[in-house]
Write a structure and sequence with these properties.
Blueprint (H helix, E strand, L loop, with lengths): L7 H12 L4 H10 E7 L11 E7 L2 E6 L4 E6 L16 H13 L6
Antiparallel strand pairs: 1-2, 2-3, 3-4
């Protein structure tokens, strides 16, 4: 079966299902950092699918959906719209948001 990039509509549905896993505090944090998903470029692996879907921004970091690996990842960015580093992780959105929120509560700013 040939790989095809995830569509905007499918990504939105996927995120909506995952949002139910957030605590109330995490949901508030998510609502603060999330953006309308938009394609961002990435130089090493992002060419075939015309980039990856950026879904949240915090400081100089972007949370994006890696549809090659079917998971969420966090990378730095120096220029808006360009992911600095490719990560092949298969992170779960609720786990990433939970971890980031916990770091902020502890006073460890991840940006």
């Amino acid at each position: 079966m040939e790989w095809k990039p995830i569509t905007y509509e499918t990504l939105i549905k996927h995120i909506e299902l995952l949002e139910y896993l957030f605590s109330e505090e995490q949901k508030s944090f998510w609502n603060f950092i999330k953006i309308k998903p938009e394609k961002w470029t990435e130089a090493t692996m992002g060419k075939e699918g015309n980039g990856f879907w950026a879904v949240a921004l915090f400081g100089h970091r972007v949370l994006y959906y890696n549809d090659i690996e079917e998971g969420f990842n966090i990378s730095t960015y120096r220029k808006y719209g360009v992911i600095d580093e490719y990560y092949a992780g298969q992170g779960e959105l609720d786990k990433l948001i939970g971890g980031l929120f916990d770091e902020i509560k502890r006073g460890v700013l991840p940006w």
